[in-house]
Amino acid sequence: MLDYRFIVENLPAVKKNIADRYMKADADAVVRLFNRRTELTTALQSLQQQRNANAAAMKGKLEPEARNRLIEEGKKFKEDIAAAEAELGKTEAELDTEGRRVPNMAHPQAPLGKEDKDNLEVKRVGEPTKFDFEPVDHVKLGQDLDIIDFDSATKVSGTKFYYLKNEGVFLELGLVRYALDILQKRGFTPFITPDVAKEEILEGIGFNPRGAESNVYTVEDEGTCLVGTAEITLGGYYSNTILSREKLPLRMAGLSHCFRREAGAAGQFSKGLYRVHQFTKLEMFVYCLPEDSDRFHEELRSIEEEIFTGLEIPFRVVDTCTGDLGAPAYRKWDLEAWMPGRNNGEWGEVTSTSNCTDYQARRLNVKYKDDEGKNRFVHMLNGTAIAVSRGIIAVLENFQQADGTVKLPKALVPYCGFELIKRKDT
């Protein structure tokens, strides 16, 4: 969340930021509740001081009448303090609820816009793949090569699930290990994280685990959810912790399954592996000093570019518009790979990296001690190393051959153990 004092002192800018993000939040209510909390806190402290003075007076030698009067006053202070504490607690709860709805401030250079079509292309690596034959999409390739089975998964699990088979299994594992090796060389500590997290951790990261519009699967009566990304479990790892300044930055790489409801995600742009309920992802996460977060955001982006450049897949980088940032992100870069089978050839998102500044750290209470010994909030960043399902789309569609085979990019051959995915009847 944002610092309440920042909201009070910058109310017009905060309200404009909410509007620019097309989000619903009541910054005026935050200011009103913050001021009310201040008043109640001051009043409570005054009552407590009077109670203490009353208790001190009781220790002296008193006439019975004076002592009885002090006893009655003490009882009244006790009642008034209990009532004041209850009202303060109620106000603080309301302030927390309203404050958590206010999104992070957006970077001044983030493009203004409502949805992904308003994102700004800032870089392109490679050009769309050209073929001397009519290319097909990954759904047909996967079925013809017997490496992806959507029909059996629908029968067993429902729509938007899939089985990987044969070379498809090694392709997934190869993509993970390829990206993991790059991250390890870059100083990231590898993790395999839980696929379940407590609701308060999701809320701290900025995900909404409740409601009809939530993209999260909840575990009934457990107070937990299936994670949509290892950003949740890596971000929660140091919740309620004061980190040593000397240990920063912390670079973490988390491998997990990701579960997303994808409610309403249908149609041509979501077919096949592009939007599914379960997939594997390797996520990058960084805890750092506030003055370093812009630099680490560029580092995460450069790693994503290195991964897809090494895979020889054409991609572009876009600066994400305000309406597509999500609540926690200050700035976000997306990598979109060329997907020849997507609507007869189109860019499709494969990674994103976000600088969330201290927004998540405030909600999760992750701090460090500065040079003066004061506790301050760290900055937290995340980025996709490889979302395997979309990585598979990009590999299959860009490296398909005229005879229906798929020739793997050179970087994956050592990890997969083969150069070519062929039909089983050839």
Structure notes:
With about 425 residues, this protein is an alpha+beta fold. It is about 40% helix and about 20% strand. The protein has 13 helices and 18 strands. Strands 1-11-12-13-16-10-9-4 form an 8-stranded mixed sheet, with helices on both faces. A hairpin with a 4-residue loop joins strand 6 and strand 7. It is elongated. The termini are far apart.
Helix and strand topology:
Elements: H1 4-9, H2 11-20, H3 27-57, H4 64-101, E1 120-125, H5 138-144, E2 148-149, H6 150-156, E3 163-164, H7 167-185, E4 189-192, E5 196-198, H8 199-205, E6 218-219, E7 224-226, H9 230-236, E8 241-243, E9 250-259, E10 278-288, H10 293-310, E11 315-319, E12 331-339, E13 346-355, H11 359-364, E14 366-369, E15 375-377, E16 379-387, H12 388-398, E17 406-407, H13 413-416, E18 420-421
Parallel strand pairs: 4-9, 8-14
Antiparallel strand pairs: 1-11, 2-3, 5-7, 6-7, 9-10, 10-16, 11-12, 12-13, 13-16, 14-15, 17-18
Low-confidence stretches: none
Please tally the β strands and state the result. 18
Query: Cα-atom Rg, whole angstroms?
Result: 27 Å
Instruction: Give the DSSP E fraction (strand runs of 2 or more residues).
Output: 15-25%
